[in-house]
Design goal:
Elements (H helix, E strand, L loop, with lengths): L23 E6 L6 E6 L2 E7 L6 H16 L8 E5 L5 H18 L3 E4 L1 H6 L8 E8 L2 E8 L2 E2 L6 E4 H4 L7 E4 L15 E4 L7 H14 L18 H17 L1
Parallel strand pairs: 1-4, 4-5, 6-10, 10-11
Antiparallel strand pairs: 1-2, 2-3, 6-7, 7-8, 7-9
Length: about 250
């Protein structure tokens, strides 16, 4: 039986009685270089759409949502929950995605689900083989996480790792997937792994939605006010600012 949704100010993990069994979820993925949106219900994709690559993410995201809803023959009012990739990934993209979902969720009174960007990227390499999802973290490093059977794997916990150190962490037969995969090609020469290079035939938002639907079933919906990007490291500009402040203090001492 369907019940009314919890108010926006409800506790972080919403009570199950407030949530519909197979909601129509709208998912946004903005942490990668190919932002996308998707609609999902139950265990099936309804529609997906890539944002216009010729426009900045902030300008392309809502038009992509509008086009997605129109193509699916539905409206924002019919969406029962939202999902967003919360990182790691592009700092600007993460802020845009989280802020957009917060605005949509607050405006409609719907809950949200936060999804790891790396978990969503791992969806581009389906099958029984272990998967390492990687994104460019700059400075010769990647954001990385390992997965086995769709679940996080202890051999590569989500974090930042030097590209030159990655091969030693990967099990034999591992598939390396994501925008960071091409950056790791030289370092992985001779390793018993396979690179699954982009572009991919489906959007990453599809996998954000799929993971969110599973989380929803297990009580993973939260109030939009509790959404926050997971950066895993400081922004380059912040690192430089802190460095300058430290140098200034050293000079004054």
């Amino acid at each position: 039986m369907e019940r009314s949704l919890a108010p926006v100010g409800a506790p972080a993990r919403l009570a199950r009685e407030y949530l519909t069994a197979s909601p129509l979820l709208l998912a946004l993925e903005t942490a990668t270089a190919a932002p996308s949106v998707a609609l999902w219900r139950g265990d099936a994709l309804v529609a997906e759409r890539a944002a216009d690559p010729g426009r900045a993410t902030a300008e392309a995201l809502l038009p992509a949502v509008d086009a997605l809803l129109a193509a699916a023959g539905t409206a924002l009012a019919a969406v029962e929950g939202f999902a967003v990739s919360i990182g790691p990934g592009s700092f600007t993209g993460l802020r845009i995605g989280v802020a957009t979902v917060k605005g949509l969720a607050f405006g409609t009174g719907r809950p949200a689900v936060a999804v790891s960007t790396l978990a969503a990227i791992a969806g581009h390499a389906p099958g029984p083989a272990p998967v390492a999802a990687v994104l460019d973290a700059r400075r010769g490093e990647v954001y990385a996480a390992g997965f086995a059977g769709g679940a996080p794997a202890g051999w590569l916990p989500e974090g930042v790792i030097a590209i030159d150190s990655l091969a030693a962490r990967l099990p034999a037969g591992c598939r390396v997937v994501g925008e960071g995969a091409p950056l790791c090609a030289d370092a992985l020469l001779g390793a018993a792994v396979t690179l699954a290079l982009p572009p991919y035939p489906e959007t990453t938002a599809r996998h954000v939605a799929r993971i969110a639907a599973l989380a929803w079933e297990h009580g993973g919906a939260i109030s939009a006010s509790d959404l926050a990007p997971r950066y895993l490291r400081r922004a380059e500009a912040e690192v430089k600012r802190i460095g300058l402040q430290f140098e200034s203090k050293e000079a004054d001492s």
